[in-house]
Amino acid sequence: MINRYLLAGALMVMASPTLAETPRQFDLHCEALRRWRDGTNAVDPITIHIRVDLDRREWCDKECQVTFQIDDISAIFVRFRNTDDLILKDDNSGATPTKEEIVVSRTTGTYADSKWHPFERGYWSAGRCEVQPFSGFAEPPSRLF
Question: Which domains does the chain have, with CATH numbers?
Answer without folding.
Answer: 4-132 (2.40.160)
